[in-house]
Amino acid sequence: MEKVFYIDLSGVTTSDELQDLLVKELPLPDYYGKNLDALYDVLTENLQEWNIIFYNVSGTADSLGKYMGTLKRLCCDACLENSNLKVRFYS
Question: Average of pLDDT values for 78-86?
């Protein structure tokens, strides 16, 4: 059964805030390293069906710049590797 996660990025202005939000909203393991490499590992190794929806992205994208671009590419790559994963971004 698919699990849907809605992650509101409004007010997120730093990569640390984003990582803290991911820890709060996703069932990440206790050993999660709070970085994009660790997120990729979790997303590609997860066997459950996850549908992750990021919304209110535009302000965070302005604040995070390259980090947000890397997050989007990482999620795209993870979806290609893990057929149980869907990730979408909405302004």
Answer: 98
